[in-house]
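Example record

Each entry pairs one chain with its bound ligand, 6-O-phosphono-beta-D-fructofuranose.
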Amino acid sequence: MGSPTELAAWQALTEHQKEMASVDMKSLFETDPQRAEKHTVQAAGWTLDYAKNRANEKTLSLLTSLVKEAGLENAIQGMFSGEHINNTEDRSVLHIALRASQAQESLMVDGVNVLEEVRATLKQMEAFTKQLHSGEWRGYSDKRITDVVSIGIGGSYLGPKVVAEALTPFSREDIKVHFVANIDGSDISGKLKQLNPETTLFVVSSKTFGTLETLSNANAARDWFLSNGGSEETISKHFAAVSSNVEKAVSFGMAAENIFPMWDWVGGRYSLWSAIGLPVAIAVGMDKFYELLDGAYQMDEHFRTAPFEKNLPVIMGALGVWYINFHNAQTHALIPYDHYLRAMPAHIQQLDMESNGKANLLDGDGVATDTGPIIWGGAGTNGQHAYHQLLHQGTRLVPVDFIAPLKSHNPIGDHHPQLFANCLSQSQALMVGKSLEQAKQELRDAGASDEQVELVAPHKVIKGNRPSNMLLTEQMTPATVGALIALYEHRTFVQGTIWGINSFDQWGVELGKVLGTDIFNRLVSDSDNSALDSSTQALIEAFKKAQS
Ligand code: F6P
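Structure tokens for the complex follow.
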């Protein structure tokens, strides 16, 4: 397809935005007592209340037309049937195959039943985690493994780390999982200081097995192991790998039987459901890992089959486009009111920004619209004492997704009702705001002079009418966490489809990698840098001087 701006629904939305510019969300609630009920949908253990959006029936109907005109139905069909929808890399996009129901017998891709490969790998993970948990797997000095360090970066790090953290209440006590990602030596050094090589196992996760950070950290781990009692002969008791490049993993020194496969048709940022999720399975057990997959599968089925008007990823994706393209929203905030989900915005940030940070349509032409927003956020209530000021009174429109469990895993005192009250009150405050008259009255009631009232009242005005979604679940469990992440994966796909871009490549990260290698070579040699810009030359010199 071409530019979405050519679509009739896009043009109608452009006109409709003018009608909506003066509509206050509060009036939508006043005129329709059923608004909340009408704008609440449920799937896979999650309830989405999207009533607090600048959207009336016409808006929603036009947005549904937009996704239809953009070809979402075909796109979903293409994804689930294994078509090469990642057109620039000529690949299928099949994270959904990683969590397909056992009832599905086959999913043929290029003549191969990928479900057989997926299930064989799950069995391999099952056997491996069982050996670790039972203590059958021993280190070189015959002690059981107590610590597992996952080494990876990007999608080979964020997804597993965020899920392992989200599932802390389900973590096993007999084994601890750690994560190392950064090329900054402080990351791995800090971890190694806490560990005993006799009882530590490293899982090196890299789809390509060619990523600088991961290979450097894996080498550092191996050196540490070898210089602290380990030997080449016992490496296989302490190192495993997850990669689609088995040859490279073997030439790194990994024992072939300790290598877990993954495939070209899984994008890094969509890979936590594959053996890249091994650290999660180690932390919580394979049973819980299967529950995580099942939660994601429930969301997949909802996405694939529910009518667009009742479809969570479609509604959230389309509303996002409404704000990005018709209200000039530049960013989108995710605010989980759940301590264990505190790192989730970082995972969704990679998922969404690496997927939809694109400026070309599928056919290579430049886009005529804005595409993926800046995704950011953090845990509530912490953010209320940091960036919520800008959400309420800043000049930018920031749509927010609030995410909260109804029940806590740690129900002490009034903590949970207080936490939940804050979550609800933030979404309410964003919508209702505070008028000048209310601000003045508040000051008068507090005994302020007329002069103070005039001076301070404008600063207390909160315009309100700021949109948010509320995503609620009974409790954070492996299944609901799985469904939540799958929801955001599909939301990303919905938006990419509307914009007509390929959400599944990431060519933009390559230039920095190439230049990084070039600069590294200059930092460690006496190269002639005179052809470089003067800024880069001076910065290289500053680094070299500091090392001498
Ligand atoms: O540089 C970006 C990226 O390719 C991500 O897409 C990916 O998740 C990450 O690097 C890690 O890649 P790999 O798993 O191949 O080490």
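Residues 153-156, 206-208, 211, 214, 268-269, 354, 506, 509 surround 6-O-phosphono-beta-D-fructofuranose (CB under 6 Å).
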